Amino acid sequence: MAEMQVAFGEASVPENQSRSRAGVLEARRCDRRLPESIEVAMLRAVKTPEMPRAAERACAVSHGQRRRVRAARTWLAQLTAETIPRSICAVSFSRSSGPGGQNVNKVNSKATIKVPMSALLPLVPKILHPSIRSSRYYAENSQALVIQADDSRKQSQNLNACFDKLTSMIAEAGRAAVPGETSPEQKKKVQKLQKAANEARIRMKKAHSNKKSSRKGRSDE
């Protein structure tokens, strides 16, 4: 009889079964709410699809990254010694401690260029910025690239050598920063820049050696 009272939810229930009745009533209430809870959860899942949104964001980031890489490769393929305007660089000359014969410590032939990062980075693809900042030419105190050359006795040649170093450094930064295999055009461009820089350095050293030999020959006479 007590079980039937509990089943039909009647008021008169033995005291020792009051807890059982309360449990049954709570279960009934839960059973009534359960379908609504499931429906609400499903509606929330439809309104706020967190996983699809996360996937969309990931795809957008990936697409944006690929686009930046392609743009950087195109920019690097067109990189020349004239790409970075010399007007953004501060140029100075000082006495050289390197080769120069009789002009050592007498003529201001050593060239130094200072390239402010605030002027350089807007001209360069953003993906290259970390590699440029990690360059051996980067001076953190002045927030600039400081490049020097003193292989020649002539200011103009040393100055050109500084800008050649700048261009080669940017090309190397591109190789380090741009993921994946570079295009054949970019490889040729980097090799061409490196070859030009090496040939210029060899020419200056050869000219210096010839001048020293010529002076030595005259002194022997």
UniProtKB/TrEMBL annotation:
UniProt-annotated stretches for the region Disordered: 1-22, 176-221
The Prokaryotic-type class I peptide chain release factors domain, residue ranges: 83-211
Pfam family, one: RF-1
Biased composition (Basic residues): 203-221
A GO molecular function held by the record: peptidyl-tRNA hydrolase activity
Gene Ontology, cellular component aspect: mitochondrial large ribosomal subunit
Domain of life per record: Eukaryota
Biological processes per GO annotation: mitochondrial translational termination
Cited InterPro entries: Mito_Release_Factor_mL62, Pep_chain_release_fac_I
Protein name in the entry: Prokaryotic-type class I peptide chain release factors domain-containing protein
Record organism: Trichophyton equinum (strain ATCC MYA-4606 / CBS 127.97)
